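Students often ask why we bother encoding 3D structure as a string. The short answer is that it lets us treat folding as translation between two languages. Here is a chain of 273 residues written in the first language.
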Amino acid sequence: MDKLEDKINELARKLGKRPLQGPHSDYQELRRLYEAQANREVAQQQKDARKQRIEAIHGKSDLNPKWTFDNLIQDSQDVQEAVSIAQSFIVAHDDPSWRQSGAHMMIFYGDYGRGKSHIAGAIAHELIEQYEISVLYRQLSSLLEMRFFSYDFSAKDDVGQKFREINQELLNVDLLILDEVCVNETALKKNAQSWLGTLLRQRQSHNKNCILITNHSLSQLEQALGSYCFESIKEYDTYKVHFSGPSRRKSVADDVAVSPSAHPSGYTPNQVR
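And here it is in the second language, the structure alphabet:
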């Protein structure tokens, strides 16, 4: 069996340290070396654990991975102003008192294709990476559809249980992003208004933040959501961001027709985005 001094010197060589000279400092030097190694291992474990937590949050968020600030086209003043507000919102999370002071809501409104969902997603990605904020992205229309089918008690696809689980997630998640709010709707049905209003009030009472994305103007949104639901929004510290620049989506009408001969065989997707 190697002597203690030999073991210490071997460990020192692995760590790039000078071998010990004499037995007097064996214990103290060994302790120092082991503590340094243990600290590095703990730091690496913490780093790996944080990475796993962030990956888990991303996995549950249902965010488009392409919605980042790096991929955002900032070619108009409205988008540049929205990014500035978004960055301020992100940085504010550095202040614990701001995070505990109340619930905050951002309302992104404007026509289709202006970058509303993209910027909301970019905010969410940054908050996950920097602060491990839990995020959930959902389209309101899909939630209302699931809610409707959850009342079919004869159904055997467990949609009722699934909706109850999702509803609990909607209440608990740190940042809820609701997209396409009241899309193609001049007014939600009364029971839908009540459900959404109650959800927002419950989140507000627990200091949970929200981002609402809509194609309506603010006056149209108030009419579509109804008084009870819109009063719930007023309880938040609200940031309203109007998107009025050009659409970033391709115009189908402007696309050049492609001759069938260009695709000799196989299925060709429309590529409509």
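Translate back mentally: The first helix runs from residue 4 to 14. Keep this in mind for the problem set.
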